[in-house]
Fold:
Amino acid sequence: MATPSQHDAASNRPSLLILTDANEECLDFCRNNRDANNESRNAEGCIYVKKLDWGKGNASAVTGSQEDGAILPSSYDVVFATDVLYDLSSLEPLVTTASELLGEGGYFVLSHVPRASTGDDEGETSSCVDSWQHLESIICKEAAKAKLHLAEFDIGGDAKASINETNQMILRPTLLSHLWKESSPISKKHSWQRMIDAGAAILVFRKKGHN
Structure:
């Protein structure tokens, strides 16, 4: 989670960043990463590592007064989640917790590569064809129940015409490569086409008071 509204203008960093996980080994990794990369900012109390289990009512673990003496905000401007949906049973607690952590108008950014099965009523796994679109639909419907709705932005007429995108904020590799005017591979292992074929996307939701 991050609170960028009072950010460091010189570095364009959030004024507060909370790294969370439910696994102690992962939390240790977060602490090591924080300490290795942000030593000077740690001294200012800008970056915290906190244990957080998803589920209704669990947001208090990273809001308000803490046992270690930290005073954290009652809500956040942005919640990030990256590559976290391996099972659909975790979807409802994930979006519920994200919504509880956000203030009105806050953003939930879900960086997502489809991994969870979207099996039908008989429990059979869906075919690969269009399976990631089906999964995205399920995610959006569940998010809406938690007052999280896809944000919108104007990508411009040229992008719409060339890559057939809408104003809904689902950022796909086709759109990102177009906006960044970047055709070279993302890395040695991951080309743009590979990410497209995998159904990778960044879904940006905004918390609104209506369902």
User: Anything to note?
Assistant: The helical segments are 24-37, 39-42, 91-101, 131-145, 157-163, 173-179, 192-198. Strands lie at 2-3, 16-21, 47-51, 64-65, 71-72, 76-82, 102-112, 148-150, 170-171, 201-207.
